[in-house]
Amino acid sequence: MGLTKQYLRYVASAVFGVIGSQKANIAYVTLRGGEKGRYVAVAACEQVFIWDVRKGEKVLILQGQKHEVTFLCASPDGIHLAVGYEDGAVRIFSLLNGESNVSFNGHKTAVSAMHYDSLGARLVTGSRDTDVIVWDIINECGLYRLRGHKDVITEALFLKDKNILVTSSKDSFVKWWDLDTQHCFKTMVGHRSEVWGMVLLNQENRLLTGSADSELRAWDIDYLQEEKAEGETKVKKEKTLLDDDDDDEDNKEELDESPEERILSCKKAGSILREARDRVVSLTADAKARVIACHGNDSVLEIFTVLSEEEVQKKMTKKTKKAKKKAAKYGHKLPVLCLDISHDNTLIATGSADRNVKIWGLDFGDCHRSMFAHDDSVMFLQFLPKTHLFFTAGKDKKIKQWDADKFQLVQTLEGHHREVWCLTISPNGDHIVSASHDKSLRLWERTREPIILEEEREMAREAEFEEDMAKGDAPVVRHYLLKQ
């Protein structure tokens, strides 16, 4: 008899090079009474790694079998971790010793959603097989299977104070389940596409859902049983043959499987537009439901703050006051090209392509005066520091000084040969520099010589008369009203 050839067996030894798998979520956990927010559990193929976020080190490995991890959920106390697998199995690990003593098998395909109740005594799981199962952690058994969704379960949440479960699915529906009778008493159909996530806010009086579009929808929850408990007798209307079918059209946002036994009602309160345009990948809130985090398939993480009713009222009051202070300035016939505000924030002067300058009051937003300023567009305007005097520059090659209190022209500075585009005034107001299309910069200095406005006007009239005579035009008799 010949010798039997021996072969050596190879077995799996270690998994390395993996920080975390993309198929599953992540979950914060607590290790041996450690601080919260320091340790995070991530899926690593068929295993689960516990990482110390502060040190960047792997501190614990939860050994799996041959199927890949698809979902993680930490217990409320943070010392147990529920792990869902590709084959539908669920295992409960103790983070004190890293061992699993409890396992559940009820799903046919991958676990896609899990959540503990507030006490950590029950666990709800959703799967790609469209079933929802509620498990008893203490007795290590299944309680009931809930069927009704037509596609993958994406989220399942317990209500804290009521024996109610709410689930979402890729079939675009959100369903409410009465766990006392194990039946669905409400189906919300207000989404146009898959519902990928949801959170409960405002002491479970509001539901926020995220779908495949860029809109987060908010729903107000009204618990009808509470009104019954106060001693009010409610007579619920049932549909009769005399009822009009228009009622069905008014309630397209929700479908009630048993209207005579309604427990709560949901009405859309509004929506939040996300910056991202793709679907919601993850939607979660902090322990106090004051901060919401949401992200999609891109690199954008959006953080929202949930305000209380008092904070909302304060913000609305401030917005109303700001809206009253803002006043739109209408009056120019052509686009406004320049503006400036006086040093004391009482006046704003605007220059326009319609060749006019308008002076506005910032207290009531009214127009104090409109003045014809230049023979072409007003290109620049600036107040003299600590005064209500301002200069304008125009396409008519001129620079003019104005008094915004008396609404009159003070003087005209001529020298540029082409359009004047801009100017600037020194902090003490003694110097002005102007820039023109003639490619020159001109410096203007303030002197100690006073200006007599009547003489300036008379000189302007004489210059205009002489110009008309030089052109050979017939003299034009002009009548001027002079102030005494």
TrEMBL record:
The keyword Repeat applies. Residues 243-259 have a biased composition (Acidic residues). Residues 234-261 are annotated as: Disordered. GO terms for biological process: maturation of SSU-rRNA. Keywords: Repeat, WD repeat. CDD domains: WD40. Transmembrane segments: none annotated. Pfam families: Beta-prop_WDR3_1st (PF25173), Beta-prop_WDR3_2nd (PF25172). GO terms for molecular function: snoRNA binding. GO terms for cellular component: Pwp2p-containing subcomplex of 90S preribosome; small-subunit processome. It comes from the Eukaryota. WD repeats lie at residues 62-103, 104-137, 146-187, 188-229, 329-370, 371-412, 413-445. PANTHER family: WD REPEAT CONTAINING PROTEIN 3 WDR3, WD REPEAT-CONTAINING PROTEIN 3. This is WD repeat-containing protein 3.
